[in-house]
Amino acid sequence: xxxNEKLIQLRKKxxxxxxxxxxxxxVSRQAVSKWESGSSIPSIENLRGLSELYSVHVDYLxxxxxxxxxxxxxxxxxxxxxxxxxxxxxxxxxxxxxxxxLVLVVLVGIxxxxxxxxxxxxxxxxxxxxxxxxxxxxxx
Length: 140
Fold this sequence. Notes:
Helix 2 (about 20-25) crosses helix 3 (about 30-35). This protein has helices at about 5-15, 20-25, 30-35, 45-55, 60, 70, 80-115. Helices cover about 60% and strands about 0% of the residues.
């Protein structure tokens, strides 16, 4: 099916006149008539507008071989259950992401804190006084 035939079919399926389409697209009724007669083609901007208005991909409008069922854009569902589940999933994903970020911050903090501890080897401490706040004794 050619572009002009698709435009006629989609307009009639939507139940609007050429004049109503022209008003919606902010073009003249004559422009719509020329598109549908095949004597001219819509501009890129108008093709985008038509694809949005008719809920089809621009590819569907331009490709003669393309099947309509494969090119219909996904419309949001009004099913409240699906909408609620979708919102829950988004909320759950954010909670998981926040929890993972918190765990990462804690682990980095522990790593940095452990890196600041001073380690003194006995070979390096010969002849130096060792001061400790812990009460322990060394027996030689």
